[in-house]
Amino acid sequence: MDWRVFAAAVLVVVPSLTISGSPFTSLHPEEAIPDPEVPGYFDPYAEFVSAVQRKLRALGFDAGPINGDFGLKTQAALAQFQLSAGIPVSGQLDDTTLAQLEVPRR
Fold this sequence. Notes:
This protein is mostly helical. The chain has a single domain, classed as Muramoyl-pentapeptide Carboxypeptidase, domain 1, CATH 1.10.101. It has helices at residues 3-18, 23-27, 46-58, 72-85, 95-101. It is elongated.
C-alpha cells in the first residue's frame, strides 16, 4: 500500500471521528429533551423549583426554562448534577442534593 493512499484515508476518516457527536449530547443528555412550556396552573412550590433550576443552570446543567415546573428536563439535569457530585442518582430533591446545590428547603 502506497503511503499516499494511507494518508488520504486518514485525512478522510479522522475528521469524521472527531465531529461525530456534539460534546454536550454525550455529557449532558438533558439537552435532548425539549424545553417544557410554562404550566398554566398555580403551584405552591414553583418558586422553590425555580431556585433549583437557576442553580442548576449556573452550574452548567440545562434544566430548561426557569418556570417552576419540575418536569422531565429539570429531573434529567438534576440527575446529571447528582452524578457529577457523587450523590446517589434519584432525580429527586432530597436533603443531600439540596445541601450540595446550596438551595434551602422552604
